[in-house]
Amino acid sequence: MKMGTDRIRQIVLSLRNFSRLDQAEMKAVNIHEGIDSTLLLLQNRCKNQSSNIEIKIIKEYSNLPLVECYAGQLNQVFMNLLRNAVDSLEELMETKKQSLEFIPQMKIMTEEDGEFALIRIAENGMGINAEVQQRLFDPFYTTKEVSKGTYMGLSISYKIIVEKHNGQLQCTSEPGNGAEFMISIPLKQ
């Protein structure tokens, strides 16, 4: 019972941190807390029930200073990118059910680059071809089957990073070699 109560407390704190309902204005926050809260909310998705394979999460956090941002909106970007990474890995796990050498993984890296915070989210999934990469941030564009998602996640994420935070959101990928999304936002707005 104590373990269950502690788990519920952890989830409630993560939900509060993730949504940042009490912090709608721009303020300096710890980016790592937002990423960790998002990962906690996605932890059940990172354990594939049908294949019993867990997505390995690798965190390489640098000593990043506090970043001035709209924390709730930035957490929404993390959720969109991490959820898409899990979707890609799940899709690949379905096709490689019998393969023991494939270990699905997501790597999250942060670093300070001059006056910018860089956040990279990479996965070793199926990858994205050049044609799809050109349309990735278009509203309603998707490679997912009908009824899976809203088809707005990457478009909204792009607007939040570029328009609200004066930053950049880019994707690099090759089919068969996974994908990496890089967020670059100013440390101070």
* SSE pattern: HEHEEEEHEEHHEE
Quick one: overall form? globular
Q: The CATH topology, please? A: Heat Shock Protein 90
**Biggest sheet: strands side by side, in what order?**
4-6-7-9-8
Mind telling me the CATH superfamily name? Histidine kinase-like ATPase, C-terminal domain
CATH class: Alpha Beta
Instruction: Give the overall pLDDT as a whole number.
Output: 83
User: Spans with pLDDT under 50 lasting ≥5 residues?
Assistant: none
Short synopsis of the structure:
The protein is an alpha+beta fold. It is built from five helices and nine strands, in the order αβαββββαββααββ.
Descriptive key words:
alpha+beta, 5-stranded mixed sheet, 189 residues, two-stranded antiparallel ribbon, Heat Shock Protein 90, 5 helices, 39% helix
